[in-house]
């Protein structure tokens, strides 16, 4: 099957107490997606390689299952599944902290299901950022990690280099989102249809489609990408980004565009608009307040950028996608 070309390696962290139904379910879901790609003749679609990572002797992490049985591992995604019992203990999370930080630093997308988000929060990677989790653990997450903006009303929250999800069965949503990200919307929809499960991506919001390239191998640019995601790309300049990368401005601009496919200003617009979309969907803040909240001093400029990225005016976006009380705020 890997003769088709590109291989996307997806890791699943099998920690003590992990819900094995999610581990095996995700493994099967990606296998179905690969088969759908073959059956539909999608020769350009990457092959999804699934690896299970678990502790071995001396607590060292190692691959205990590999769907392609190949040598060499470099996860593009690391999924932290849910637990059937309770939120993980600090001692348990500490055992995986360094590995998760390393994978993230090397460009892997971290994706959590339910209480799996606690592992990411314990790494400090969610400080100042939004995340979702099961409603039963939302207060505990907020209390243990007060710098995390907990949004428990979202089934799945994709924020660039980190994806979090809410319910115990949200692993289906996470899996289908990843299929959509790497193999395309058609294969995600066909996989969902074959498995007879709902696919939240069918209702994807225009502002939630930003999937930045993280596997380009340019560590200096990746460092800037992580910084922009963590700050919401607010109050940043080309000079500040170049300083973060440790590069001269002209070199930074060239390497950033080569690595991400976007100019730094375009990248920042995508990050800001993505956050604005969530505010429009789930808060009753005015358009002006949202513009200021994501870093635009001029609401008019914000409206222009928002329409350029999503194809909709902010007010139209709210009318189409707002949830609950937010829908009453035009």
UniProtKB/TrEMBL annotation:
Pfam families: DJ-1_PfpI, HTH_18
Keyword Transmembrane belongs to the record: yes
Annotated ranges, domain HTH araC/xylS-type: 222-320
Coiled coil: none
Sequence intervals crossing the membrane: 107-126
Keywords on record: DNA-binding, Membrane, Transcription, Transcription regulation, Transmembrane, Transmembrane helix
Top-rank taxon: Bacteria
Stored Gene3D superfamilies: 3.40.50.880, Homeodomain-like
Protein name, UniProt field: GlxA family transcriptional regulator
Species this protein is from: Pseudomonas fontis
Classification of source organism: Bacteria, Pseudomonadati, Pseudomonadota, Gammaproteobacteria, Pseudomonadales
